[in-house]
């Protein structure tokens, strides 16, 4: 996948349910976080699409000028791909939540909605591209380009989306931006909101620029009297390994099952 920060290799695990009677039987289910990076069947990230839209409609640049700006950032993209992504940007903003028939056709078969919200803030202008995607079907439900000072408009848009659906929203996945958290809290009270942990891991793994100063603050720790430290309960080290594996996004390995690890059923 091509992003503004370079080419990223995403390994997406696709699962298929074979249980009889399941509404998702034999349907490929992709990772929820995939839609926070890239649109289905696209090789360019959402950040590239957002920047192309901002350069076109906020700075009134032509396609050759946009292509030159991206190439100056070492983004491997052709002029034709810029045109295609600009068309995709227009298609995203042309999606109307008032198209109830389209929304019902996407969500009614599954009986529930797991919503994924992405916020793309380009480096130019003050517009933020918000993309709402349904995780179970990988369909884009809506997209809005809003100025930063109008981010509170997400609340009525979330409410309109919820009213347009015949099925309940059972969960939301996002990067945890403040406007999304407030919109989910007000428009979808009681709906679980999962923050995307890989976003922080991706930023933590990225090296610091050489021009960015690193400040270290040394705090004086007062001396304290030694005291007895209680020994950890038996088996805590084993479960610490399990917790570390979960935080790193690893699958439950066979050796972890001997410590009591198990897959918990999701109550959606």
Automatic annotation (TrEMBL):
Protein name: Uncharacterized protein
